[in-house]
Amino acid sequence: MIVPIIAYGDPVLKKVASEIDENYHGLNLLIENMFETMYNAKGVGLAAPQIGLSIRLFIVDASPFAEGEENETDPRAEGLNGFKKVFINPIIESESGEKWGFNEGCLSIPKIREDVFRHEDIEISYYDENWVYHEESFSGYAARIIQHEYDHIEGILFTDHLSVLKKKLLNKRLHNISKGQVETDYRMKFPLKK
C-alpha cells in the first residue's frame, strides 16, 4: 500500500527516532509498504519518519543510480545494481575518507536539491528484515544514500547540512512546502495545509 510522505515542517522529521524490537507489530507489512511508497515516488531511500513513524528503520534501493549513464564510469557507483537493503536499529560506527559533494534531494522536501558534503566511507551495524545482525562497510553512493537516510532517524534533514546563507535563500520555498504549496506526482501529507 502506498502511504503519503510527510512533508518538511512536520515535527516527526526533527525527532530522534526510537529503536524497535522484532515483535514490532506489522513490521513486514510496513517494510513492504515503504518499498512500494518509495518506488512510487521514484526515490532511492525512505526512512520511517518520512511516513510518520518515529522508529529507527529505513530502506534503500540504489538501482536507479547504477542505471544512470553518467555513473557507468564513476567508481563511486560500483556495486549499486541490486543494492536493496532494510536497516533496522542501525548505528553508523564510523565515517572516514574524503568528504565529497553531491546534489541531494529528499522526498519530504520536493523540488529542492542542494550540494551536500559527506564522507566517502562508512561502517554501520544494523539488523535486516529477518533480524539478522550485520556489520558492514560501504563507500561512494551507497555510503551517501545510507548517511542521508540515517540522518532522518536522527532528526536531521539534508537542508541542515547547508550554510546559514543557503538556508536563508531557501526559507520561502521550504515554508511553501510545509503549507502544501508544491506539486508532486506522489502523495504527501503537509503539516500546515488548511
Assigned CATH superfamily? Peptide deformylase
Query: What fraction of the residues are assigned to beta strands by DSSP?
Result: 25-35%
How large is the count of helical segments? Answer: 4
User: On the 0-100 scale, what is the average pLDDT?
Assistant: 93
Task: Name the structural class.
Answer: alpha+beta
CATH-assigned fold name: Peptide Deformylase
The SSE string, one letter per element, is EHEEHEEEHHE
Reading off the top of the CATH hierarchy, the class is best stated as Alpha Beta
Supply the CATH architecture.
Alpha-Beta Complex
SSE blueprint:
Layout: E1 5-6, H1 27-40, E2 45-47, E3 57-61, H2 63-67, E4 84-106, E5 109-127, E6 133-139, H3 140-153, H4 164-178, E7 188-189
Parallel strand pairs: 1-7
Antiparallel strand pairs: 2-3, 3-4, 4-5, 5-6
Describe the structure.
This protein is α+β, with helices and mostly antiparallel strands and 194 residues long. The chain is globular. The mean pLDDT is 93. A hairpin with a 5-residue loop joins strand 5 (109-127) and strand 6 (133-139). It has a single domain (5-180), classed as Peptide deformylase (Peptide Deformylase, Alpha-Beta Complex). It is built from four helices and seven strands. The longest helix is centred in the C-terminal third of the chain and has 15 residues, at 164-178. The strands form two sheets. It has a five-stranded antiparallel beta sheet with strand order 2-3-4-5-6, with helices on both faces. The protein has a two-stranded parallel sheet with strand order 1-7. It has helices at 27-40, 63-67, 140-153, 164-178; strands at residues 5-6, 45-47, 57-61, 84-106, 109-127, 133-139, 188-189.
